């Protein structure tokens, strides 16, 4: 089976997402609001990770396409809600007006709710997955996006504003808030590919380092990034008096942590079977490490 490049897979994801929310017989513009945020751009990291991991594991990436789209829907709903005045109160996301600035707050809330539930519909209706794997993926996604995963991490993050926390608590926040869905991307692919336990465990540990890398880099970019490349203003963490890797460890300390998780992720991927072409997963590590937006 011919391997696809990262750019090819992203193009596939964008094509699949374009127009995925069809018109409703209810004749509201809720679907327009949902599609607006799905089409607002982004790196498509989470769905890309599913498809790349399937490629690495010599599995048919088509078996992960619906799961990849579902994951991007959940990520998008979380961004819509994060941008609301009650939370981060952002006017722009990826250089475009945020959903509530275009459609109003109540419709943005409902668009997020609808994307969340649509995600599970997509996986449940996926004819390419056998029922046992489908149930595993739905269960994992519910866990990783819910009160013990992304939503729980966001809650702990909000509760920690305006109060000092230690580095252990910060890591707990980000393993849930950011890391849980990145871990889901890797492990859902591992489940679809039905890998052995040794491979599964290595990929799980790899995904945890990847999630912390992503957040540490975010913290660095929030202070030292280029606003034009980020598509939003920098310094929001400072304005909100949030504890970050930079505020707790300083720039040099945060960069040292980033380096540690990078090296750990690479070491784990290098332990995988020689039957796998690991280059794409190493490329992801470098992408996270070097990204500027």
UniProtKB/TrEMBL annotation:
**Has the keyword Lipid biosynthesis been applied to this entry?**
no
Q: Where does the source fall among the domains of life?
A: Bacteria
Q: Check the record and name the Gene3D superfamilies matching this protein.
A: Farnesyl Diphosphate Synthase (1.10.600.10)
Is Methyltransferase given among the entry's keywords? no
Instruction: Give one Pfam hit by family name.
Output: polyprenyl_synt
Keywords attached to this Swiss-Prot or TrEMBL record, sorted alphabetically, are: Isoprene biosynthesis, Magnesium, Metal-binding, Transferase
Question: Which InterPro entries has this protein been placed in?
Answer: Isoprenoid_synthase_dom_sf (IPR008949), Polyprenyl_synt (IPR000092), Polyprenyl_synt_CS (IPR033749), Prenyl_diphosphate_synthase (IPR053378)
The record, for PROSITE patterns, names:
POLYPRENYL_SYNTHASE_1 (PS00723), POLYPRENYL_SYNTHASE_2 (PS00444)
Which co-factor is required? Mg(2+)
Which Gene Ontology terms cover its molecular function?
transferase activity
Q: Which residues form the signal peptide?
A: none
| Alphabetized PANTHER family for the sequence | FARNESYL DIPHOSPHATE SYNTHASE (PTHR43281:SF1)
Regarding protein family, the annotation reads: Belongs to the FPP/GGPP synthase family.
Protein name (record): Geranyl transferase
